[in-house]
Amino acid sequence: MSTFLRLGIAPLGLLLLASPALAATGNTATATGTANATVIAPLQIIHAPGAAINFGAFTAGTGGTVSVSQAGTASVTGDVGLVTGGTVTADAFTVLGSGSRTFTIATSTGNTVRTSGPTPATMALALSVPATGTLSAAGSFALRVGGTLTVAAGQAAGAYTGSYTVTVTYQ
């Protein structure tokens, strides 16, 4: 009998080990999810050929400021005097990207304009831009940059130039 039990039980044990485990109904469920993504056009900023902030011609007097608005209108404070015949313009850029998207606008700080030569004269340049912009449905935005020069008393006469950066970032 002990041989029968060993031989009879052993195949039964193997049969139980080899059979698949069956889950009870309702213990498992499966569903399918959805994944979406939208790739948008990268932002681009293009400087208009020949454009610049032009502060026109002015006298320094005892100092003050000369400003150009984003609309291209000049104004002065202190003893600075605008002289007729000077060209006054705001700088111009075009921002391109994905239509109807909002973006932030930032400019470099610590900007100056200076004369050329071994001992250049400088003036501080503060820039004026909107904090944000929204691209048109077609994906463009006309950005105008104004600014203010701080003019010292007796500021040296001459032609001053400088540069700055503008950065746009999607929100």
From TrEMBL:
InterPro entries: DUF4402
Record keywords, A-Z: Signal
Top-level taxon of origin: Bacteria
Signal peptide interval: 1-23
Pfam families (UniProt xref): DUF4402 (PF14352)
Protein name, entry field: DUF4402 domain-containing protein
Species of provenance: Novosphingobium piscinae
Classification lineage: Bacteria, Pseudomonadati, Pseudomonadota, Alphaproteobacteria, Sphingomonadales
